[in-house]
UniProtKB/TrEMBL annotation:
HAMP domain ranges (all copies): 215-268
Database matches in InterPro entries: Chemotax_Me-accpt_rcpt (IPR004090), HAMP_dom (IPR003660), MCPsignal_dom (IPR004089)
Spans traversing the lipid bilayer: 24-46, 192-214
Gene Ontology terms for molecular function: transmembrane signaling receptor activity
Tagged with keyword Aminoacyl-tRNA synthetase: no
One Pfam short name: HAMP
PANTHER family: LYSOZYME-LIKE PROTEIN-RELATED (PTHR32089:SF112), METHYL-ACCEPTING CHEMOTAXIS PROTEIN MCPB (PTHR32089)
Native source organism of the sequence: Paramagnetospirillum marisnigri
Keyword Transmembrane on entry: yes
Keywords: Membrane, Transducer, Transmembrane, Transmembrane helix
Name of the featured protein: Chemotaxis protein
Alphabetical list of CDD domains matching this protein: HAMP
SUPFAM superfamilies (UniProt xref): Methyl-accepting chemotaxis protein (MCP) signaling domain
Length: 545
């Protein structure tokens, strides 16, 4: 795991933890101090040079003072009042200052003084000591010369001794001046070489410091620039920059590392999001296509169901019309049953005239037989209608089950129709049984017509029974009429329900068409989204993680 740049920087020297402004300020202060030191050093050199010049001047002045002292001695010897001893004191004091250091008069007219250092080395000190010995000899020669008179024969010798002593003092002073000048020149040369060495050292240090500062600034910036170029080319696999300081360059490198890491995370997340987007777009597109196919199938199924319901509605109309016809026939049968009942009553009342009206009764019985056959046909028709109604009710129940919630009312109507059809079948079965019994009675009546007279009483009873049976038959027929009327009403309700179902199917068909349109729009949007994801993926392929 890579160390934190700031923690790594804290382990280095104080220099690496300093900011650039402080570094430059420190370098500026250091060079200023060095420059100030050079200036102080130069001032000291100049002061030393000035002192060496004063010492050389004072040493050279000794020769001038010796000559002045010689002239003053001659003047005093000639009778001129001159303070030659003052000149001698100046020479002594100057020589003592040159040897041991101290104050010395630099201007004989104003009396200005300066402090001189001691003799710089033993050779110069020895030369000055030699000068001091020569000065004492010079003083002794001057004293001896002044002590002589003009008539003294040795005065000329003493004059020669004085001049020789003066020459020695001058020579000693000249030697001291040369030695002091050479020492001054040597010191100046040493100072010059020292300054050159110090300047070279300072220049070298300046170059080293500049190189170090340049490396600490240029190399990290160059590495950062190279890394930025790679990032610009899309290479995010670069290693993190090594941070060796906590200054602005170190902060720039740390910020650059954080930026690259953040950009790498963003690119990775963007690539993952792009892949998810492409997968989601493909899934949406697949779902949209499946939904479009399902919507088309649903629309086709709704169309088929609508056609089937319309056919069922047409069949319902036919059933309703047929039911109305059957109801009319049943009413006619009921009316005939009432007439038959009245005839039986008349037969019962006129039983006494049966004998006279046997033929008439036979004809009536034949007519009744024919009507009974007609009723049988009607009952067969009613039974067939009941069976068809039962079949229609079964088909309606199947369609209602397919229609689910919308077919609940239709299912109720179909059940009612089925119940009515079952009741009609039971009633027709009963009527058929009754008609069969009636047919047997009629046949028996035809066969026993000849014996009708003998069996009037029996005929009267059977007439009574026939009246009762016909009454029941009339009642049953009336019930059948009511049942067919209910069937007609139920068929009408069924027709209304079928119309509602048809309307609902049309609305479902419109909704399916709208859904198909919306699905097509969704499919187009999914394609656009997929293309967008692919474009984004191609853009992100520029970055190499």
């Amino acid at each position: 795991m890579k160390e934190d740049p700031m923690t790594n920087a804290n382990r280095h020297s104080l220099w690496t933890t300093m900011k650039l402004r402080r570094k430059f300020s420190t370098v500026s202060v250091a060079f200023t101090l060095v420059l100030a030191g050079l200036i102080v050093f130069n001032v000291m050199v100049l002061r030393n040079q000035s002192q060496y010049s004063q010492i050389t001047d004072m040493a050279g002045r000794q020769r001038m003072l010796s000559q002045k002292f010689g002239k003053e001695v001659l003047l005093v010897a000639g009778g001129v009042a001159v303070d030659h001893l003052a000149t001698l004191r100046v020479m002594r004091d100057s020589l003592a200052a040159l040897m041991e250091g101290g104050e010395i008069i630099v201007n004989l007219d104003t009396g200005a003084k300066v402090d001189l250092p001691p003799a710089p080395n033993a050779e110069i000190r020895a030369k000055l000591a030699e000068q001091a010995v020569a000065l004492r000899l010079y003083e002794q020669a001057a004293t001896a010369f002044l002590a002589s008179t003009s008539g003294d024969g040795r005065r000329a010798d003493k004059m020669k001794d004085l001049l020789a002593a003066q020459s020695q003092v001058s020579d000693a002073a000249e030697g001291a001046v040369k030695m002091l000048s050479y020492h001054a020149w040597s010191s100046i040369q040493s100072m010059i070489w020292l300054q050159v060495a110090i300047g070279a050292i300072i220049g070298f240090l300046a170059m080293v410091i500049s190189r170090l500062i340049g490396r600490q600034i240029a190399e990290p910036l160059e590495a950062c620039s190279e890394a930025a170029r790679k990032v610009a080319e899309g290479d995010l696999r670069i290693e993190a920059l090594d941070v060796h300081s906590s200054d602005e360059i170190g902060l720039l490198q740390s910020s650059f590392n954080e930026m690259v890491a953040s950009q790498r995370d963003v690119a990775s997340q963007a690539r993952s999001a792009c892949d998810s987007l492409i997968a989601a777009a493909a899934a949406i597109l697949s779902s949209a296509q499946e939904q479009a196919a399902g919507t088309k199938q649903q629309a086709a199924a709704v169309q088929e169901i609508t056609t089937t319901v319309e056919e069922i509605s047409l069949s319902g109309k036919q059933v309703a019309e047929r039911s109305r016809q059957v109801a009319g026939t049943a009413e006619a049968v009921a009316s005939s049953g009432t007439t038959g009942l009245q005839a039986v009553r008349d037969a019962s009342v006129g039983m006494e005239a049966i004998r006279e009206q046997t033929e008439t009764v036979a004809e009536n019985i034949i007519t009744l037989s024919e009507r009974t056959q007609a009723v049988g046909e009607i009952i067969a028709t009613v039974n067939e209608i009941a069976e068809q109604s039962n079949l229609v009710a079964l088909n309606a129940a199947i369609e209602a089950a397919d229609a689910r919630e919308q077919g609940r009312r239709f299912s109720v109507v179909a059940g009612e129709i089925k119940n009515l059809a079952d009741q009609a079948k039971e009633a027709t079965a009963q009527v058929r049984g009754i008609l069969e019994q009636t047919q047997k009675g009629i046949n028996t009546s035809v066969m026993l017509t000849e014996e009708a007279l003998k069996r009037v009483e029996a005929g009267r009873e059977r007439t009574t029974q026939s009246e009762h049976v016909i009454r029941q038959m009339s009642d049953n027929i009336q019930e059948s009429v009511h049942a067919f009327q209910q069937i007609v009403g139920a068929t009408n309700q069924q027709q209304i329900g079928l119309e509602q179902v048809t309307q609902a199917l049309h609305e479902i068909r419109q909704a399916s068409q709208q859904t198909a349109l919306t699905t097509a729009q969704l499919e187009k949007a999914s394609l656009d989204l997929s293309h967008l994801g692919q474009n984004l993926a191609r853009t992100l392929e520029k970055y190499r993680l």
